[in-house]
Structure formats: structure tokens, C-alpha cells
Specification:
The complex is a heterodimer of chains A (about 325) and B (about 250). Chain A contains 9 helices and 18 strands. Chain A has about 325 residues and is an alpha/beta fold. In chain B, strand 8 and strand 9 form a beta hairpin. Classes of the chains: A alpha/beta (about 325), B alpha/beta (about 250). At the A-B interface, helix 3, helix 4, strand 7, strand 9 and strand 10 of A face helix 3, helix 4, strand 7, strand 8 and strand 9 of B. Strand 18 of chain A pairs parallel with strand 13 of chain B. The complex binds flavin-adenine dinucleotide (FAD) and adenosine monophosphate. Chain B: Heterodimer of an alpha and a beta subunit.
Chain lengths: ~325, ~250
């Protein structure tokens, strides 16, 4: 008998529908008696209505509180822990939101968290990656404790939409700290496809050479309708902002098509793209490790290949 | 003010991890061990705060088997004032680590605790958040910039949407992301100097920590390998190959 509480992620009241629907999919793999989704926000109505359309959701709990305007882990944690009684599992996506928040919930409930849940092997048995994905472990949580997990979204397909779960207003009784203040969020441009849910991603690495040169990566991505990503080296060098980083310490993604341009293929980068459908690599070094995992490899100078590709695609 | 840095020893990030054929673990015999990269960044940040005159003392702490002294000496050589070695033979899970660090926090009363955002062996990304929770203090995870003034820390955090800034009251817990700083190299004279710096050794059992290793690992396996791909000659062949796969 399992009952799962899924913590919805949202930004300013707009649901991160992809991450939330993938987390619901992981919850469904438990064949639970019920999956409830909780939305904590200043005004949760829009995100809750959206979450209610995810198939498999029994009901949505909307927790309105001005203190929930931003996702402050030490503010949300005690509320989730209070709401968690009555649930056997509490899941959130393994995004920076879930990674920041869920260990707080786990600590309050006196358990270790199952980080980056990849597969469900039993109601308390899961697989998860360690050592940057170079080993996969099977872990078992004890029967008498709540399972707290973050779900590795790249391992799951979004649960379908079209549901119509009821939305209930919930109140929770928890003392909330006042020691943390949100100052601001400097968000990147949002007019491009979202890296984490895009079907196609084009990434550039150190080989692209400069912020200026990255223009050709963006142009090529536009041609494909793709999101843009980057290696850590490209981010560190200041070619693109941090939120574009793909890999162990950036975003773990699973697009249908991933094109790596001027990226050598360090293990920490590959961790982020293992679940991509087709990996294309363009690199001038025939010995670059990226070719060991690429489905389609092209040895060549990116400054020559990309214009040619665009020309071919433009026909 | 005083800064406590959690400084874990892990398998070096350049080592190619091999899973044992019987699925009982990963090969660690004879494998190079180093400081967790995020913890080196944590220590570097603490040292910079001391260099700026914000902090007076930097203490590094590890929970590890008896042979981890050389690891702590590296932390001292980098510049920490003192080291605390909680001697513990078995690997512990994040909640146990957080409870242990809380004992050190109660003893040392630091104004700031800096940890790595994740240890690159278990990739758990939990201990800092758990410590903040148990301690009842603020957390600012995945930091790429830390400023301390007037009993507060202003921390820029790397989040999926971009860069978030939080202001937290001290004492607080900060966990580091890679772009916070670039750790300094250890110089030979510093290794000599580190030999005379104080290192306290505390048996894990003496701290009275209730162990909380709740997860049982039953099996290790290698990740599924991707099949070998094809090489194409030029842009036209690449486009043709993508079209053949139905991707264009
Ligand atoms: C703890 C830790 C975590 C990390 N996390 C991440 C992470 O999340 N993501 C990540 O990406 N990295 C991460 N790294 C860094 C990683 O180890 C590599 O340093 C990084 O991925 C290298 O980026 P790169 O491939 O762009 O650069 P390089 O390795 O320098 O490769 C550049 C490539 O470009 C090619 N090139 C150059 N010019 C051209 C040209 N004109 N045309 C075609 N090809 C060209 C070169 O042949 C080369 O292969 C991490 C490292 C550590 C220690
Ligand atoms: N055994 C340990 N000794 C010292 N620090 C630790 C230990 N375990 C975890 N930490 C700290 O907690 C951080 C996060 O670890 P984890 O939650 O295991 O990913 C690490 O980067 C360290 O700073």
C-alpha cells in the first residue's frame, strides 16, 4: 500500500510541467493507491490547475502562503514534512529545486534521501547512479520509514495530460523560519526552447572559442528548433551563462537529438547526455572521446561544418 | 569569525570507476584518493574570507578511516588553521554525516559552515541541507558567490533558471558549486608548515551520534553502454543520416 506525495515545481506560479509530469511518472511506477501533488506558492491556483491535468494524479493540494512565493528550502521543508504524514513516499524532481529542498524533508523525517531515482524495482527498491553515473546501485529503503526521493527526470517519460484531478486547498501547521530572504533571480533569456524539456539540443564547447563565435551555435540551433546547451569549459570561459551547462554538475538531459560541437566528451559531460536518443558529435580531433559514444560522428572544423550544414538544411 | 569546512576524501575524479564483476561494489583497491573537488572549493572560499579579514579561523573536518590524516594535512597545507578527524572506519550516509557535523558545530560554534554541494562518490547532494535542517539554521546551496557583511551572507546560487541571490542570517550553511572559485595549489613549504598545525582526532563512537544509515545498497552494476555509432564524411552525409533516422 503506497501513497505518494509529489512536490510540484513552479516558478512564480507557473508550473514546471515537464519535471512535475516526469516525477508523477516515477510515482506511477510504484503502482500506488494514490498520487497527490502538492503546490506551495503565494498563489498556487494556476500551477495547481495545471498539475491537475497530469494523468494519474488523484488530487492536488494547494498550499497558499506569502512565505511560499519563492522556493526557500528551509521554509518549504517543514510544511512538506508536516504534509507527509499519511504518505509512504515523497517525490520531487531532481532539479536544483528538488535537490535543494528534499534533503531538508528527509532530515526532518529522519531518513536518507534516494537521490536521482532512475528506476523503481519494488515499492522500496530503486536504482540510482553514483560516481557520475559510472556505476548504478540498487538501494532499498526500510519498510517503516517514509521514502524521500528526487527523481532523475532524464530517466522518465512525462506522464500524459488530460486528467482532471480535484484541487483542494490545504493548510499546514508548521513554524517557518525568517532567517532567509530572497533577493532576486537573474534569469537567462526565456524566448528559446527550454534545455531540460527540448526534443533537440545543440551544445557548444571550448572549441567554439568565444562568446561571439557562439552565435553560430545559436543560429544552427534556431534552424533545428533546438535548445542550446554547453560544456562546463564553455560556461567557465564566459561564452554562455551557467544555466546552459550540461553534465554531472549541470543539467542531465534526454533529448531525442543531441548535437555536441567542439566538445571533447569528458566523462562529466557525458553523464548529462547518456539518455539522449541520438548523439551527433562534430569535432576536429578524430581521437576525441565524444566519438566513442556518438551515434553519428563527423570529424571536421566546426567553423566550416556548421555553415555547410545550415546551407544543406536550408535547401 | 570562525568557518568550519567539511572536507571529504573521495576517489579522484580522473579515475575510471570499475564495477566489480560480482556486483558487490566498485574497485577501490589502489585507486587514487583526493579531496572532493567541491570541498576544495569550500576550503578555498573559507581561506579567501580569512585573507579578506572576514574570518579569523578556518577549521577543516573529515569523517573518514584512520588513514585519512594525509588528506587532512593537505587541507592544512592549503591553509586551514586546524583539522578535526572524526575516525570512522565504515562509509556513512548523508544523514549520519550531517548528525556528526552537527556535533562538531555544537563544539566549535562556527559562524559559517561550508560544504561541497555533493560528494562525487555517492553523488548524494544532501549533507549540507541536512546539517542546516538539524542545526535550525539557513542554507544557501550551489553557491557561485559569497559575500559576508553585518552578520549576514549574501549568496548567489546556480539554479536551473539562472542565478538566484539569497540573503541569510549567520550562522548559516553554504554549499559550493564549481564556479565559486579556483582552489589554490599547495606549495612545498606549506606542506612543511602543515606538519606542525594542530590535528584533533575523535573516535566516531565518542561523539554519541545515532547512526542513520537507512538505505541498504544491495547491488552495483555498470551503466548500459551505448552502441558504437557511424562516422560520416561531411555535412551532406550527416543530414542524410539524420533524415534516415527520421530526426529531420
Ligand atoms: C567535479 C567536476 C564536475 C564537472 N562537471 C561538468 C559538467 O557538468 N559538464 C561539463 O561539460 N563538464 C564538467 N566538468 C569538466 C569536464 O571535466 C571537462 O573539463 C569539460 O567538459 C571540457 O569541456 P569541453 O569539451 O568544451 O572542452 P575541451 O575538453 O577543451 O574540448 C574542446 C574540444 O573542442 C574541439 N575543437 C577545438 N576547436 C575546434 C574546431 N574549430 N572545430 C571542431 N572542434 C574543435 C577540440 O578538438 C576538443 O575536443 C566537470 C569537472 C569536474 C572536476
Ligand atoms: N564523511 C564526510 N567527511 C567530511 N565531509 C563530508 C562527509 N560526507 C559528506 N561531507 C560533506 O557534505 C558534502 C555533500 O556530500 P553528499 O551529501 O554525500 O553528496 C560533501 O561535499 C562534504 O563537504
Amino acid at each position: 500500500m503506497s501513497k505518494v506525495l509529489v512536490i510540484a515545481e513552479h516558478l512564480d506560479g507557473v508550473l514546471n510541467a515537464s519535471a512535475t509530469a516526469k516525477t508523477v511518472a516515477a510515482a506511477q511506477a510504484l503502482s500506488p493507491d494514490a498520487i497527490d501533488v502538492a503546490v506551495f506558492a503565494a498563489d498556487p491556483s494556476a500551477a495547481a490547475a495545471d498539475a491537475a491535468t497530469i494523468a494519474g494524479v488523484a488530487k492536488v493540494l494547494a498550499v497558499a502562503n506569502p512565505a511560499n512565493a519563492q522556493a526557500l528550502a528551509q521554509v518549504l521543508g517543514p510544511q512538506i514534512a508536516a504534509l507527509a504524514s499519511g504518505y509512504s513516499h515523497v517525490f520531487a524532481p531532481s532539479t536544483t529545486f528538488g535537490k535543494d529542498l528534499m534533503p531538508v524533508v528527509a532530515a526532518l523525517l529522519g531518513v536518507n534521501q534516494v537521490s536521482d531515482l532512475m528506476t523503481v524495482e519494488g515499492s522500496r527498491v530503486f536504482k540510482r547512479p553514483i560516481y557520475a553515473g559510472n556505476a548504478i546501485v540498487t538501494v532499498e529503503a526500510p519498510a517503516d520509514q517514509t521514502v524521500v526521493a528526487t527523481v532523475r527526470t532524464a530517466s522518465w517519460q512525462e506522464s500524459a495530460r488530460g486528467g482532471s484531478a480535484p484541487v483542494e486547498t490545504a493548510t499546514v501547521d508548521a513554524a517557518l523560519p525568517v532567517h532567509t530572504r530572497f533577493v532576486g533571480l537573474a534569469a537567462g533569456s526565456t524566448d528559446r526552447p527550454d534545455l531540460q524539456s527540448a526534443k533537440r539540443v545543440v551544445s557548444g564547447g571550448r572549441g567554439v572559442g568565444s562568446e561571439e563565435n557562439f552565435k553560430i551555435v545559436f543560429e544552427f540551433a534556431d534552424k533545428l528548433g533546438a535548445a542550446v546547451g554547453a560544456s562546463r569549459a564553455a560556461v567557465d570561459a564566459g561564452y554562455v551563462p551557467n544555466e546552459l551547462q550540461v553534465g554531472q554538475t549541470g543539467k542531465i538531459i534526454a533529448p531525442e537529438l543531441y548535437v555536441a560541437i567542439g566538445i571533447s566528451g569528458a566523462i562529466q559531460h557525458l553523464t548529462g547526455i547518456k539518455d539522449a536518443g541520438t548523439i551527433v558529435a562534430i569535432n576536429k580531433d578524430a581521437d576525441a572521446p565524444i566519438f566513442e559514444i556518438a551515434d553519428i560522428g563527423l570529424v571536421g572544423d566546426l567553423f566550416k561544418v556548421l555553415p555547410e550544414l545550415e546551407a544543406t538544411l536550408g535547401e | 569569525m570562525k568557518i568550519l569546512v567539511a572536507y571529504k576524501r573521495v576517489v579522484d575524479y580522473n579515475v575510471r570507476i570499475q564495477v566489480k564483476p560480482d556486483g558487490s561494489g566498485v574497485v577501490t583497491d589502489g585507486v587514487k584518493l583526493s579531496a572532493n573537488p567541491f570541498d576544495e572549493i569550500a576550503l578555498e572560499e573559507a581561506l579567501r574570507l580569512r585573507d579578506k579579514g572576514v574570518a579569523a579561523e578556518v577549521v577543516v573536518a573529515t569523517i573518514a578511516p584512520g588513514d585519512a590524516q594525509a588528506h587532512l594535512r593537505n587541507g592544512l597545507a592549503m591553509g586551514a588553521n586546524r583539522a578535526i578527524h572524526v575516525v570512522c572506519d565504515a562509509a556513512i550516509q548523508p544523514l549520519t554525516a550531517a548528525r556528526t557535523l552537527l556535533k562538531l558545530v555544537e563544539k566549535e560554534q562556527p559562524d559559517l559552515v561550508i560544504l561541497g554541494k555533493q560528494a562525487i562518490d555517492d553523488d548524494a547532494n544532501q549533507t549540507g541541507q541536512m546539517l542546516a535542517t538539524l542545526w535550525g539554521r539557513p542554507q544557501a546551496t550551489f553557491a557561485s558567490k559569497v559575500e559576508i557583511a553585518d552578520g549576514k551572507a549574501t549568496v548567489t546560487r546556480e539554479v536551473d533558471a539562472g542565478l538566484e541571490t539569497l540573503e541569510v542570517d549567520l550562522p548559516a550553511v553554504v554549499t559550493t558549486d564549481l564556479r565559486l572559485n579556483e582552489p589554490r595549489f599547495i606549495k612545498l613549504p606549506d606542506i612543511m608548515k602543515a606538519k606542525s598545525k594542530p590535528m584533533e582526532s575523535i573516535p566516531f563512537a565518542d561523539l554519541g551520534v545515532e547512526s542513520a544509515d537507512t538505505l541498504r545498497t544491495t547491488h552495483f552494476e555498470a551503466p548500459t553502454k551505448r552502441g558504437k555509432g557511424v562516422m560520416v564524411k561531411d555535412a551532406a552525409e550527416l543530414v542524410a543520416a539524420l533524415k534516415a533516422k527520421g530526426l529531420l
